[in-house]
């Protein structure tokens, strides 16, 4: 059995409520930079592989850990965040500005619906999770540390739990329903997202 540790990036300026100009190059907040340093102490693991997404906030979060384990190979995988709002439209906005269009997206509850051609459908997001699982299964490394994003990690955990309990039956619809439930609760009630910034999650593949 592999030891897989998947970590949500530390707090970004978007998480802190600031306006951002690009969905993939959002920097960490000052609090997030401290969280990234603290992760090195929390992660008492010597991995055989370190994985990051192509988004700068995971790379920035991983940097102190990478420095500690400088001889460990680093790879970039498709573990980026699920982006369902067109970045071109919402560049220069903050999280509060995006609540209404976000709720509108989740209300559709359509796994094939896309707000524009610049984003994934939920079906494509699910396929990306499946590809990631197969990628992990095919690796020879036994200890892997992955720096990723909140919706991706939450979606992955829901997906794996569904497989365990129900197999592939209705997996896309169930995943969307459960992710919609947690994410819209966070948007509507300002409740804390279940996958916290800089949190570490062990999964079994």
The amount of helix comes to 40-55%
Side-by-side strand order of the widest sheet: 3-2-4-1-5
Q: What spatial form do the alpha-carbon principal axes imply? A: globular
| Secondary-structure element series | EHEHEHHHEHHE
Question: Can you tell me the number of structural domains?
Answer: 1
Description:
The structure is a single chain. With 205 residues, this protein is α/β, with parallel strands linked by helices. The protein has one domain (29-203): Rossmann fold (3-Layer(aba) Sandwich), CATH 3.40.50.1240. Helices cover 45% and strands 11% of the residues. It contains seven helices and five strands. It has helices at residues 30-42, 56-68, 87-90, 99-108, 122-137, 150-166, 171-189, and strands at residues 3-8, 49-52, 74-76, 143-148, 200-203. It has a five-stranded mixed sheet. The longest helix is centred in the C-terminal third of the chain and has 19 residues, at 171-189. The protein is globular, with a radius of gyration of 17 Å. 29% of the residues are buried. The model has no long low-confidence stretch (mean pLDDT 94).
Layout of secondary structure:
Blueprint: E1 3-8, H1 30-42, E2 49-52, H2 56-68, E3 74-76, H3 87-90, H4 99-108, H5 122-137, E4 143-148, H6 150-166, H7 171-189, E5 200-203
Parallel strand pairs: 1-4, 2-3, 2-4
Antiparallel strand pairs: 1-5
Helix pairs in contact: 1-2, 4-7, 6-7
């Amino acid at each position: 059995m592999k030891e897989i540790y998947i970590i949500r990036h530390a707090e970004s300026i978007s998480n802190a409520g600031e306006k951002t100009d690009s969905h993939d190059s959002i920097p960490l907040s000052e609090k997030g930079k401290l969280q990234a340093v603290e992760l090195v102490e929390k992660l008492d693991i010597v991995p055989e592989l370190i994985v990051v997404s192509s988004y700068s906030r995971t790379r920035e979060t991983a940097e102190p850990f990478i420095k500690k384990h400088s001889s460990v190979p680093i790879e970039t995988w498709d573990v980026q965040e699920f982006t369902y709002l067109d970045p071109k439209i919402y560049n220069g906005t903050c999280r509060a500005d995006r609540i209404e269009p976000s709720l509108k997206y989740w209300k559709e509850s359509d796994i094939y619906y896309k707000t524009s051609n610049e984003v994934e459908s939920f079906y494509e997001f699910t396929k990306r999770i499946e590809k990631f699982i197969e990628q992990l299964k095919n690796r020879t490394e036994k200890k892997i540390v992955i720096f990723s994003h909140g919706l991706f990690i939450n979606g992955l955990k829901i997906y794996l739990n569904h497989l365990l309990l129900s197999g592939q039956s209705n997996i896309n619809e169930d995943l969307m329903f459960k992710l919609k439930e947690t994410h819209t609760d966070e948007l509507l009630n300002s409740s804390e997202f279940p996958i916290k910034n800089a949190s570490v999650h062990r999964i079994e593949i």
